[in-house]
Design brief:
heterodimer, A: 253 residues, alpha+beta, 5-stranded antiparallel β-sheet, two-stranded antiparallel sheet, 8 helices, 14% strand, globular, B: 514 residues, mainly beta, 4-stranded antiparallel β-sheet, 3% helix, 39% strand
Amino acid sequence: MSRLMIVLLLGTLCRAQTNNPFASDPQAAETGRWNFRIICSPCHGIHAEGGRGPDLTLGTYSAGDSDAELFRVIAGGVPGSEMAGYAGRLEDEGIWRLVSYIRTVAKHETSAPPGNAAAGAELFWSKGNCGACHRVAARGASIGPDLTRVGRQRSSAYLRASVLTPDADITSGFNTVTVVTRDGKKIQGIEKSYDTFSAQLMDLSGKYYSFLREDVTSMTREPKSLMPSYAKQLGETEINDLLAYLSSLRGQQ
Amino acid sequence: MKLAILSLLITALAMAQTNSGDWTAYGKNSFGWRYSELGQINTANVSRLAAQWMYQTNMPGKNETTPLVSDGLMFVTGPSNTAWALDALTGRQIWAYRSSPPAKLDLCCGPVNRGFAMQGNKLFKVNLEGMLLAMDPKSGAVLWQTTLEDYKKGYSATAAPIIVKNMVVTGMAGAEYGTRGFVDAYDMETGKRIWRFNTIAGEGEPGGQTWHGDAWKRGGASTWITGTYDPKLNLIYWGTGNPGPDLDGDVRPGDNLYTCSLVAIDADTGKLKWHFQFTPHDVHDWDAISDPIPMDLTINGKTVPAVVQANRNGFFYALDRANGKLLLAKAYTKVTWADGIGSDGRPILISGHEPSEEGNRTCPGMGGGHNWQATAYSPQTGLYYFTSSEGCMLFFKTTQEFVEGQWYQASTGSRDEPGSGLVIGLDPKTGTAAWKFEMVSTPTSGLLATAGGLVFGGDAQGYVFALDARTGKVLWRFQAGGTVIAPPISYSLNGRQYIAVAAGQTMVTFGLAK
């Protein structure tokens, strides 16, 4: 019994290793890159710059910035998200090599965005009216993507593109669905669910709809955003302020 | 002598009593048609189809099984070395089997299993760690088990075996881990291996010149989907997978036989009768593993014994199944890498479609076209049914060293636009689609054709549906609440026809509402 306890303890200690054993091995990052491209790139992009999953080149990560925290996320996944755990597919060494690779792609945006975050917050909630669709923690609406942690999830370049050309990249699950009913009424909203036989959507007022394909004239889903471009609505200083605010949104720690 | 006659009589009696409403093999018949002669559920009444029972397996993971039904029991395999016998009338569990897989397994695509084979008083299945088992259908007891190959060297097993004469014939998986593929035949009674056909031609063997150096040792050509058997020609047809590493062809110059091929194996000797390589020197991971379906085709007024396959490379092929000669090849989806198939069977390549470090766009994508999902053939309509993923992919390449136990794929493919899906009803005599049913996402499930003039399938969003086999029109659907990856089957019990399919972690069975 005590021997079992020791074995279990040892196992826990090995898994709980806090430092990357390959931290000083330059080949580890290259080996990690091979697996990154196969396993991680479908969500995090071939250059780790994000896509369906967060941008990993920011040098700051949703689940924590230490080697041990990165290891834990890769091994166990993130409950409630699309991030699966890979402990069953990769040995500890393989996971540490992925950590090595992720460290080499981190750019660490040290220079803070040029704007004023406090002024940006004011814009976000007043003139920009962003809160009519987006949520930051308990405030705002749940029509567009939740921005509570967006500063950790997206680079400032990505955020700038989103504000200026919202169609540039659509966050998964936020396509635009258009339904034309039999009586000619056009209803447009954000995709809540969409399949071969039906569509569920929410319009910009937050009203929810569900339709069967056989009951309507047409039903389409497009990778475009219902968000307006802010290129003309805001001046350059205002956009910088807004981006400074968005980049500062890092969730509750 | 008298005993022999008696035993023959008993066998004949047993065959006569075999319930024709049973489903006792992966592809239903040895040709893998997945065609049920049951027509009680048909185009006129399918709208009344309703769920009869559900069984929750409570096993996470993709459920890809083809259930077998025999003598009132349904035999279902699940992920991670699990299996169940269920009462086919009520769905009540009769027995359960579970064996813990090793902690570290090299699996490209999840801890899946695609079903049992069955003969007389034995069930056969593979376990993930490259094991073949014989089991007692009455209790689930293991009668014998044997190792195909060492899982620590990257070998695994996921496909349903088939029965050929006194043998259980099985494939393997693991072409992403530097393995050498094979098809094995084992004695049903003892589990002793009778023959092995290596799907990679080794040094000094015929076809060995299509490799350079020792690349063949990690050549791949896994056999992860079940083959078919023609008793008249005594040939086993088996599709083979990608060469290893998948996307970097530079380390393996040559055609790389017998990867991405259909091989015809003599059932008695295990020797190659003929082969047809669909994609020589593949660099897009276009496994040729779709069920090879024997059928007789009348082409230009002449009836030919053919074998057909909707290949992952985007082309539909019909071959003469006696000699492997190309009869017909025609693209069924958007193809950008080849300008048709030459009369010699080789694709007419269009340059600029090699995977690259930064990605190169090619259609179809990495999974095809049509991937492994079970196909169906209806002798009633003469149509061949299969699914197709529509859309292209960026194909990436990485220079990668081989390390034992390390994923040896040398990069990947990724979509740069959303994919969609089709169910296609195709005339195999001409390669022309009679109809296409459009789906909003890429296909996941296999298909079933029935004498009721129906084709059953499912989708990623959890729908099970019935299409008119002649037109592709949707006649019925049911939201089952879990992705349908497995193919549906049909059986009858007490004069009533049922449709059964695995969806998510549930086995669900349908019948006409009383």
